[in-house]
Amino acid sequence: MLTIRKLTVASAAILASGLLFANVYNSIVDVPNWGHSIPASLIAAREYFQAADPGTFYRVLSPALQVLTLFAVVICWTVNSRVRYLLIAALFISVSVDVFTFGYFYPRNEIMFRSSLDGNIDAVTAAWSQWKSMNWVRSALIAAGVLCDFLALDRLRSTSDR
Fold this sequence. Notes:
This protein is mainly α.
């Protein structure tokens, strides 16, 4: 039987999966294009990102995931400790990914997409290279959160709803 608990946890798992695949897309498609021929490739990306950029997507869906996961923690609190701990882990991971994003990626975004490119090519290329490498780490963290969500959903499925 589908319950609000199962629906909420499944929704969090689906949203987290969407964020994971969008992040992987950035690594496979966007990042190679950004670094293809610096500075021309970054000038093209800056022109393309005039109306919206990947941050536009993440600034909406990432907080939505955190709120949804927090709601899942609250409504599943009394189900059993394993579900509760898995959802708390998923929430912790989601918040940690945002902290990582703000602390690590935003400064590099500033260098690549907003700072002057004149005489700054080495710094821009270094920022791009660091971004490229660490985005796979961010994807792995998001994947760990997805795994926690799906494990919680599986555990919830096998537990009678109270």
